[in-house]
Design goal:
By secondary structure, this protein is mostly helical. The protein starts with a helix and ends with a helix. The longest helix is centred in the first third of the chain and has 36 residues.
Length: 120
């Protein structure tokens, strides 16, 4: 019974982490629009990038906790690790000012995050 309770708690944490990641990626799209239209958009987008990256790391942590102690599938850990890699590439492309790849990758990340959220 304790294993089931641990798995349920980990599942909830995993669900929260995916939801937070999806929300932060969406807010990055909003702040990208503000980046083009307002003076404070750059600051919001920069702060949002850090928050989004932190949400991706939280997703990895939640996936590890759902897998190892909870006895779940390692598949969410693979997805979370992939998202962290994509987030790292996204941040690097943003710093390098390569919008031709940065923007489509952001759209891809949002779509994949929504898909991961729908699968939970």
């Amino acid at each position: 019974m304790a294993t089931q309770a641990t798995a349920q708690r980990s599942f909830s944490f995993l669900q929260i982490a995916i939801t937070l990641q999806t929300l932060t990626i969406f807010l990055q799209a909003v702040s990208a629009g503000l980046l083009l239209t307002s003076s404070y958009g750059e600051t919001l987008h920069s702060v949002g990038a850090r928050v989004m990256y932190g949400a991706s790391m939280l997703y990895v942590l939640a996936a590890v906790l759902a897998w190892k102690p909870g006895g779940g599938s390692p598949r969410p850990l693979l997805y979370a690790s992939g998202f962290l890699v994509l987030a790292s590439v996204q941040v690097a492309l943003g710093i390098a000012h390569v919008p031709a790849v940065h923007l489509p990758l952001g759209v891809l990340m949002f779509g994949l995050s929504v898909l991961a959220l729908a699968r939970r």
